[in-house]
Amino acid sequence: MSEQSNEPIISSQNQAPDTRKTQDEIEKALEEARLKKFEEDKARKEKDKGSCSRWAPGAWDAARADFAAGKIPPEPWFPIIINDYMTPEKIREICGLPSPPTIEWTTTAPFETDYTSTTKRVQYCTVHGWEASCLIREASHGESVLVWFKDERRSAWQAAAEALESEDER
Fold it and tell me: Taking Cα atoms as reference points, which of 115, 108, 123, 116 lies closest to residue 154?
């Protein structure tokens, strides 16, 4: 005859409560971790509450006061990528400039979330003011491309073709 073990026999009915208890412990631990993460995020957001704006505290109040006093900020410069279609001469014609703008070199900049894109060197000209930028965008079809402009990432217009006349303009 075979020798019998002194260990108790565990039936499948006895195992279920132990497994269930383990699942309950896991769920409780996960809930505690979620709650802890929530509280940490809440504390971080509260701490960073005033620093979400890229402007220093009081900058908006100072800008409003300047505007009320008649001080108007200078209009920005906009980079326009030069290619076979959009040339400095074409920019001069569209914007009504006395002479073509000068050509400069820069590199494209990747979007913050796009780590796989490659940069390339491009030629660009700059136009001064919102009106000139709007005239070029209205006169052409194209896309915005991120470039390095004055040591920061800026959107540059890359025209691909002349804009077609709309039904209203006919």
Answer: 108
Rounded to 5 degrees, φ, ψ at 128 are -105, 125
The model's pTM: 0.55
* Three-state DSSP class for residue 154: strand
Q: How would you write 86-110 as a 3-class SS string?
A: CCHHHHHHHHCCCCCCCCEEEEECC
**pLDDT tens per residue, range 103-143:** 999 999 887 766 667 888 999 999 999 999 999 999 999 99
CB 110 within 8 A of CB 119: yes
Q: Where are the domains of the chain?
A: 15-71, 77-162
What is the reported pLDDT for 119?
A: 84
Residues 139 and 145 sit within 8 Å (Cβ to Cβ): no
d(CA 79, CA 133): 9
Q: The tokens of 110 are what?
A: 């990747």
- Would you state the pLDDT for residue 125? 95
The pLDDT value recorded for residue 4 is: 54
Taking the C-alpha atoms of residue 64 and residue 81, their distance in angstroms, rounded to an integer, is: 34
Instruction: Write out the two tokens for 59.
Output: 């900058």
| Length of the chain as a residue count | 170
**Cβ(140)–Cβ(161) under 8 Å?**
yes
